[in-house]
Design goal:
The protein has 491 residues and is an alpha/beta fold. It is built from 15 helices and 24 strands. The chain has a seven-stranded mixed β-sheet, sandwiched between helices.
Length: 491
């Protein structure tokens, strides 16, 4: 039964220095299921972004000087406020982000654990004591780098925004967040409301929203401004390359988590139910709009036919439609550009000889769960990230061939292996060119405290837990001379 979309929240403005600020211009925030206007969002420019950066810089010294446990307490308060307001986030994830109700519930429940993990990080070691040949008390300590710019994506706006700023902020940095123009509330202004309710000091956390037309102006200010010392970005590889290049030119730190072309490798001894469910979840969760989505299912020849039959049967039960109906698991793609990209890949594959095992239909922003076979390396769907509900199923003979097929891409984010032989799977995993690998599970995996990130064109650095500190702190060498190290007599 189709439910009416709940009324959009009151949009108070940009969030700068603890205050709401309106802008002369606004842009429409659309519901991708039906194209209706869900909210009117402030359209910031370089001036407003600069003001947010200045506010973050002014708040930096006080925030960094807080006792570690006080910053931890703020992280815990944010988690508690978020939990009380989970329903608000779920509504936004559905009707602003186009996500299935279950996906929104998963994100809403995950986000508080990000802030609790960040709180725990405050109690971790921040350095070490080093030996000294001169009897010094020699230490290497980590200190916050300063203002951190966070650019977050639309596909998992709760988890990926929280992960982008929680750990740097817990470490003593201050934040300016620019959410995606497709999810400015779920990925930005909702967080501002939560942070303000939690009582975080003014200026520590700021949010600027902008339209697609203003992205370049706002993004340039957020990266080029000399007060910004680091950038956290999650998004596409082409944009990530430009951001990393700009940060490199300015000698700024950055952590960029980018696209993927991830494989699920199904070995001949795999449990078939586990294999097909891992493939279905991995390929079609949130319409395949996840950086870790299974885009290639590599299946050993001996079980290829059985796997394909059961995979098609399982995926064929997924319902597609407006996510206001909680029974629809496959919702819309987020915008028309994504639809055009996915449709073009399907059409290119079919024109070059690929076969449809399931789906292929496109109606508006809704793309049916699609399974392609007989795909060859000259097809776009083999080479390029799809970011839609499309899975390629390809056979292989040997483990060596499976490794080669998995590594045949510029990307290297995540992977999955399904096998009853853990030793064989572990041996195979060590040869996959991916930052993450999950045995007897889908490539889609995350936990707040783990090192999340990829290799090759899938990114630089790691998000999560103590690994975030490697990017968003500086290491300082500080000594205390207790041995009265002598100087040359001439001095």
């Amino acid at each position: 039964m189709l439910e009416h979309a709940p009324k959009a929240p009151q949009i108070r403005g940009l969030f700068i220095n603890g205050q709401w600020r309106d802008t002369p211009n606004h842009f429409d925030d659309l519901n991708p299921s039906d194209g209706s206007v869900w909210a009117s969002i402030p359209d910031a420019g370089a001036k407003e972004t600069g003001d947010a950066i200045n506010a973050a810089q002014a708040a930096l010294a006080g925030w960094a000087a807080l006792p570690f446990q006080e910053r931890a307490h703020f992280m815990l308060k944010i988690a508690d406020v978020w939990e009380r307001r989970m329903a608000d986030y779920v509504a936004a994830a559905q009707h602003e982000g186009g996500g299935w109700f279950g996906k929104g519930m998963f994100e809403a429940g995950y986000v508080p654990e990000v802030f609790r993990a960040a709180a725990g990080l405050c109690y971790s070691a921040i350095g070490e004591v080093l030996p000294s040949e001169h009897g010094k008390f020699s230490t290497a300590v980590r200190v916050p780098i300063g203002v951190v710019g966070v650019i977050s994506p639309w596909n998992m706006p709760g988890i990926l925004t929280a992960r982008g700023f929680a750990f740097p902020m817990a470490a003593g940095n201050t934040i300016v967040l620019k959410p995606s123009e497709d999810t400015p509330y779920a990925g930005g202004l909702h967080f501002a409301e939560v942070v303000k309710e939690a009582g975080v000091p003014d200026g520590v956390f700021n949010v600027v929203t902008c339209s697609r037309n203003s992205v370049a102006e706002v993004g340039d200010e957020l990266i080029d401004n000399p007060l910004v010392k680091g950038v956290s970005f999650t998004g596409s590889t082409p944009v990530g390359r430009r951001i990393a290049a700009k940060c490199g030119a300015h000698l700024k730190k950055c952590c960029v988590e980018l696209g993927g072309k991830d494989s699920l490798i199904v070995l001949e001894d795999a449990d078939m139910d586990r294999a097909t469910s891992s493939a279905s979840f991995g390929a079609f969760m949130h319409q395949g709009q996840i950086c870790m989505s299974v885009e290639k299912v590599l299946v050993q020849e001996k079980i290829y036919s059985d796997f394909l039959r059961q995979f098609v049967e399982r995926a064929g039960k997924l319902k597609t439609g407006n996510v206001a109906d909680k029974g629809n698991v496959i919702g819309p793609l987020v915008n028309d550009r994504q639809v055009a990209r996915v449709k073009a890949q399907i059409e290119d594959a079919l024109a070059k000889g690929a076969k449809l095992a399931l789906g292929g239909g496109v109606q508006g922003r809704f793309v049916e769960p699609t399974i392609l076979t007989h795909v060859t390396p000259d097809m776009d769907v083999w080479r390029h990230e799809t970011f839609g509900p499309v899975a390629v199923v390809a056979p292989f003979k040997t483990d060596h061939e499976a490794i080669a097929l998995n590594n045949d891409t510029e990307y290297g984010l995540s992977s999955g292996i399904i096998s009853a032989d853990e030793n064989r799977a572990l041996a195979l995993s060590r040869q996959l060119e991916t930052g993450m690998c999950h045995i007897n599970c889908s490539s889609i995996n995350d936990e707040p405290h783990v090192p999340f990130g990829g290799t090759k064109a899938s990114g630089l650095g790691r998000h999560g837990g103590r690994w975030s500190l490697e990017t968003f702190t500086e290491t300082r060498w500080i000594t205390l001379d207790r041995g009265s190290r002598p100087y040359p007599p001439v001095f």
